[in-house]
Amino acid sequence: MRYGLLAGLLIGAMTLSGCTEGVLDPKGPIALAERQILFNALGIMLAIVIPVILAILGFAFWFRASNERARYRPDFTYSGRLELLVWSIPAMTVLLVGGVAWIGAHDLDPGKPISSTVKPVNVQVVSLDWKWLFIYPEQGLASVNKLVVPVGTPISFELTSSSVMNSFFVPQLGSQIYTMSGMATRLHLQADHLGTYAGISAMFSGDGFPDMRFTVDAVTDDRFAQWVRQARETGSALDKQTYADLVKPSKAIAPFTYRAVAPDLFSSIVNADMGAQDSSLSICSTSQRAER
């Protein structure tokens, strides 16, 4: 028994040791709250699963063939107490787990701003084939496959896609959210610790999907201001022609920055996609009327 318990602890330690840089190693308030929901749901379910497993072992031991004290009741058909026990425990589990998920889903609504005395940094995100474009409208610059944010500051994201549907996800900061062509979604995150965190595309989007990754650098306010100054001094300007070149499919792009961004570029990306969708719908409806 002692060696079995020790083996279980070692296996658990080795399993959790591989959870760094993931949802179980949160570095922000949203990811921390999401992990707490996972732990709460796990605790509720274990409170049911462990007694059931012990009860199975106990029944198997008590009703073994060599136990003459066990009562053999072949005509047993119904017990109100057993029925109440069998149905009340799963119902209680569903209510508890559902309540935790329901409350957490409303508290951690991606579109709900993070309460803070610090002014948030606005970032516009565009998922491309197969890279990520981050536009800083207030700073007037942009970066590809690299997101730099000040630590302890809420980040207000506005996200869209230039082509197929995609999914923006930084596991250590929390809240995966989809990007869709022709519409903008909202997300609020915050990094509470200095460091570099992995960002991924959490939805298959074609041949370049395995390399569609980015990094999130959480830096001090001074380092963020320094990065902004350096980005404004290097690289080219992101205008419509440069964006047209950037949109072309490419794989494993090294991070780089744009020193300036055309005004309302993000809005034009969203509206252009909406216009393309509307025109395709009108063409489709026209063809359907012609067939009729």
Can you describe this structure in just a few lines?
The chain has 292 residues and is α+β, with helices and mostly antiparallel strands. The chain has helices spanning 2-17, 29-62, 80-107, 221-233, 240-247, 265-291; strands spanning 121-128, 131-136, 141-144, 146-150, 155-161, 166-170, 174-179, 185-189, 195-201, 213-219, 237-238, 256-258, 260-261.
Description of the molecule:
This protein is of the alpha+beta class and 292 residues long. Helices cover 43% and strands 23% of the residues. It is built from six helices and 13 strands. It has a six-stranded mixed sheet with strand order 8-5-1-2-3-12. The C terminus is likely disordered.
Summary keywords:
5-stranded mixed beta sheet; 6 helices; disordered C terminus; 292 residues; alpha+beta; 6-stranded mixed beta sheet
Chart the SSEs and their pairings.
Blueprint: H1 2-17, H2 29-62, H3 80-107, E1 121-128, E2 131-136, E3 141-144, E4 146-150, E5 155-161, E6 166-170, E7 174-179, E8 185-189, E9 195-201, E10 213-219, H4 221-233, E11 237-238, H5 240-247, E12 256-258, E13 260-261, H6 265-291
Parallel strand pairs: 1-5, 4-10, 11-13
Antiparallel strand pairs: 1-2, 2-3, 3-12, 5-8, 6-7, 6-9, 9-10
